[in-house]
Amino acid sequence: MRVAVFSAKDYDRRFLGAARPAGIDLDFLEHRLTARTAGLARGFDAVCVFVEDDVSAPVLDALAAGGIRLVVLRSAGYDNVDLAHAGVVGVTVARVPAYSPHAVAEHAVALILALNRHLCRAYNRVREYNFALTGLLGFDLHGRTVGVVGTGEIGTVFTRIMTGFGCRVLAHDIRVNPVCAELGAEYVDLDRLLADADIISLHCPLTQDTHHFLDSAALARTKPGVMVINTSRGGLLDTGAVVAALKKGRIGALGIDVYEEESALFFEDRSEHGAFDDDVFARLLTFPNVLVTGHQGFFTVDALTRIAEVTMANLSGFAAGTGPVHPVTLVG
Ligand code: NAD
């Protein structure tokens, strides 16, 4: 089976290469998958893609015309795939559902701790021998209320960590997860979560229902000074409304690992280009109480190892005729 691996970085070569079984040949391509690059997959059996690759209907048409029968995602989220159209053109889609919920949950906690205790500011100050504490005031996490939206794999690990800090957890999901409830999370409606949470952390997928989940109306119902954390998908936040809420102090701190328009920015070194033409992103970076990381929540040795293993299992299952281990279908 010949697989074209799009958006391949050095770490993809390392981890996928190490997990590759006999009979699966990988061609690593640095290009992102787009309508323009889909032709590169002609003659391959499958493509392996990541979150910024475009697997929309026109791209699927081009892939199918070139002989592609399988798309394997090196990610859990699949909002970049037109699943209905994949079914129409006979392309199977597979993903890595739970490679390491710890990696992303721990990154969300890292954002909370760094923001709350102003670690970036403290780091820079101490390097200049400035030991003044003004501006570094934080709060105890113990006793604070954390709102968790989406209590699947990642939200549950996040809940476990936050209860370990002694936080009260309010959870909101379209279905109750008994594991989360057993950890002590109290399932509440969205209004109650918005009104009571000192910290809101988003762990639901990006869907039509969750697009701009936190918009100006929702943000107006939060506690003044709330900390908002998004390690899930950029589209969950209405970034314009978030900027307005930061200006008014409605949001007291923002930690994001994902951004609505990240596909034009993330995963590349753009420091040399100097063409910073995303004004909303540039505005976000002007706030001292905003911490942005470039979609690195998944980026641990453990997660990359697991992603590579499950990706190979998906490919092997398809090659063997039994189907990928983790197919993605329209119903889930
Ligand atoms: P999961 O499927 O295990 O859990 C998602 C939860 O969200 C489910 O419990 C589901 O019921 C809930 N949900 C769905 N729609 C909802 C709605 N409208 N309101 C409230 N809850 C809703 O997924 P997971 O493995 O926990 O991953 C969550 C998300 O994290 C992924 O969809 C992906 O976007 C993101 N993610 C980010 C990174 C990163 O590197 N930053 C890495 C992996 C995953």
From TrEMBL:
<feature type="domain" description="D-isomer specific 2-hydroxyacid dehydrogenase NAD-binding">
    <location>
        <begin position="109"/>
        <end position="297"/>
    </location>
</feature>
<comment type="similarity">
    <text>Belongs to the D-isomer specific 2-hydroxyacid dehydrogenase family.</text>
</comment>
<dbReference type="GO" id="GO:0008720">
    <property type="term" value="F:D-lactate dehydrogenase (NAD+) activity"/>
</dbReference>
<keyword id="KW-0520">NAD</keyword>
<dbReference type="Pfam" id="PF00389">
    <property type="entry name" value="2-Hacid_dh"/>
</dbReference>
<dbReference type="InterPro" id="IPR006140">
    <property type="entry name" value="D-isomer_DH_NAD-bd"/>
</dbReference>
<dbReference type="InterPro" id="IPR029753">
    <property type="entry name" value="D-isomer_DH_CS"/>
</dbReference>
<dbReference type="InterPro" id="IPR036291">
    <property type="entry name" value="NAD(P)-bd_dom_sf"/>
</dbReference>
<feature type="domain" description="D-isomer specific 2-hydroxyacid dehydrogenase catalytic">
    <location>
        <begin position="3"/>
        <end position="328"/>
    </location>
</feature>
<dbReference type="InterPro" id="IPR006139">
    <property type="entry name" value="D-isomer_2_OHA_DH_cat_dom"/>
</dbReference>
<dbReference type="Pfam" id="PF02826">
    <property type="entry name" value="2-Hacid_dh_C"/>
</dbReference>
<dbReference type="InterPro" id="IPR058205">
    <property type="entry name" value="D-LDH-like"/>
</dbReference>
<dbReference type="GO" id="GO:0051287">
    <property type="term" value="F:NAD binding"/>
</dbReference>
<protein>
    <submittedName>
        <fullName>D-lactate dehydrogenase</fullName>
    </submittedName>
</protein>
<keyword id="KW-0560">Oxidoreductase</keyword>
